[in-house]
Amino acid sequence: MKKGIKGLALALSMSMLLTACGGGSKSNDKASTDNASNSTVTESNGSSEKATKEIKWDAKSLPVKGEGDPIEGGTLQYAIVADSPIKGIFDENLYQDANDYYVIGLCNGGNLYDADESFRLVSSDRLEINWDDENNKVEFKLNPDLKWSDGEPVTSKDLEYSYYVVGSPDYTGIRYDGTEHGRIIGMEDYHAGKTDKIEGITTPDDQTMVIQFSKLTPATHWGSGLQPSLMPYHYLKDIPIGDLEESDEIRIKPLSAGPYYISNYVQGEKIELTANPYYYKGKPSIDTINMEVVPQSNILSAIKAHKYDMVSTVPSKSVEEFKQVPGYNMEGVGDFYYSYLGFELGHFDKEKGEVTVNPDAKMADVNLRKAMGYALDQEAVAKQFYQGNNQLAKSVVLPVFGEFYDPSIKGYTYDPDKANQLLDEAGYKDVDGDGMREDKDGKPLEIHLAMMEGGDTQEPLSQYYLQSWADVGLNVTLATGRLIEFNSFYDKLEAEDPEIDVFVAAWRVGTNPNPKESYGNSAAFNMSRYTSDKLQESIDRISSMEANDKDFVNKAYKDFQNIVFDEVPAIPLQWSTNWQLVNKRVLNYDAGYGNGEHINNAGDWALSADAPIEK
């Protein structure tokens, strides 16, 4: 068998060629890391590659120091790095595309809640939250100074309405959770269309909302069953809930209770945000934020020209080049993100909200899935495709969740001998001597891989993966014969396209580490469509009342990680760093996580010059 590192070197030469010619496709890859180690990796030709660096996972607060004194007003230029137009669904309960959330996040100026050191929800200056675990009740009290961008006061009806939208039988989004939302008294009947009122949600006054649960589990303290945002009831109430997602009130002219609101929108491409004069902290210092979609292939040249103050993501392959551009600060912390290899293993019934496993799926054999993981050298990918700024992802629970992460899991490290052994033992053998393995019945085995198009890394990376699997005798080809456009890729996954057997995707996870939304047996986001009694039992323990006990929940999380490693519904591939690039004229910016520490949001920022600083 060929050595995987040679296949990787070939892919890299293709990458350099594509870059030099200006060809190839564009990437949605995320960026990576910090803190270089002294180790190196040496190819067979003796060349030395950059070492993988250690990702910073402990940055609760990380102020980024700007230059100069604040000026009044000004316009901040913000680039959304994306290779497709954004979808433009500007509501936290309805959006699905992370690029839309960059707009939502700047408008909202951060989260409705604050978080403690372990990311449990705590009161903020916008919303006081009072937990009554004994009586299975949560009380919310809104800051009476909150106002919408049309001047109307924010009331408890606006918080309540988000539950009515997400729980509605006509809801078009993907955030209703039958288990967690179903713990709210009356929610199941409302969701089934049996009643038009959720019995367990009351609004005693304009600032207070109370939720009565049948059972208030520890997971609720991380947000399970709670909605993260306000929805302006007075503005949306006359629009049928099933039509909200396509309405102008969501897509073109949404209201905001945060520091900025959308004042102009060129569909999919440009968004103008204007300071909310009714913002509860006072009108923000910066008058306008101009947001523009920029392809990954163009963003470095745009930054070198100092066209933008900030970017949504720094392409990980270009981190070192971005660091060299004068006039900018760069800080990196571990991203709430991992890429993974997923497998088409079953079906999700949308009506029943159930995942069922197909025992006859092409990828049903767990040893076939494991072999595909061991055939890939993710450490070499991190070093050579991402300049050492990514890391092999060892677990689907990120190290930022220090209480729950299991450091003993080594991940699917590169071991082609083990991959070959697993395939041999599972009965996948080369019957006809052509170098490719047949299936267990001796019939041709062709595995179809779906990957997103993007930048000048995706094409050579896909070819490296195909070659690595070929090196252990697996005939893997690209589904559709090519890389797939970002939005179409996820449409195909959700539709369980029969042309797809395996796929490379990514999770941008939230601050709630509970895995039920991505691996639970009732989760629409369970893209591999896999479940098992053992896996679900571990998830149920994480969400149970016994999880109030620290030792119990820690063990439950570690059990979950080991079950994922053993049963392989997905193989984590890469962890990365969220690199944040900020022009030095931007003041009061904080790159930290905000868990247990106050960090500034967009409403606190200021500018020190009329245009981005160039040196």
Description:
This protein is of the alpha+beta class and 615 residues long. 24% of the residues lie in helices and 20% in strands. It has 16 helices and 25 strands. A 6-stranded mixed β-sheet has the order 18-22-15-21-19-20. The radius of gyration is 24 Å and the shape is globular. It starts with a helix and ends in an 8-residue tail after the last strand. The N terminus is likely disordered.
Shape: globular
Structural class: alpha+beta
Alpha plus pi helix count = 16
Strand content: 15-25%
Low-pLDDT regions: 1-49
Number of DSSP E strands: 25
Distance between the termini: 51 Å
Report the major sheet. 6 strands, mixed
Rounded radius of gyration (Å): 24 Å
How much helical structure, as a percent, in the residues? 10-25%
Mean of pLDDT: 89
Strand order of the largest sheet: 18-22-15-21-19-20
Main attributes of the structure:
615 residues; 25 strands; alpha+beta; disordered N terminus; six-stranded mixed β-sheet
Summarize this, please?
This protein has 615 residues and is α+β, with helices and mostly antiparallel strands. Helix 15 (533-542) runs antiparallel to helix 16.
Topology:
Elements: H1 4-21, E1 41-42, E2 48-49, E3 63-64, E4 75-81, H2 98-108, E5 114-115, E6 121-122, E7 127-132, E8 137-142, H3 156-167, H4 187-191, E9 201-205, E10 208-212, H5 233-236, H6 248-251, E11 260-266, E12 270-275, E13 288-294, H7 296-304, E14 310-311, H8 319-323, E15 328-343, E16 346-349, E17 354-357, H9 366-374, H10 378-384, E18 391-392, H11 416-426, E19 446-450, H12 458-471, E20 475-478, H13 486-494, E21 502-508, H14 516-519, H15 533-542, H16 550-567, E22 570-583, E23 586-587, E24 589-590, E25 606-607
Parallel strand pairs: 4-13, 4-14, 19-20, 19-21
Antiparallel strand pairs: 1-2, 3-24, 5-6, 7-8, 8-10, 9-10, 11-12, 12-13, 15-21, 15-22, 16-17, 18-22, 23-25
Helix pairs in contact: 1-12, 9-11, 15-16
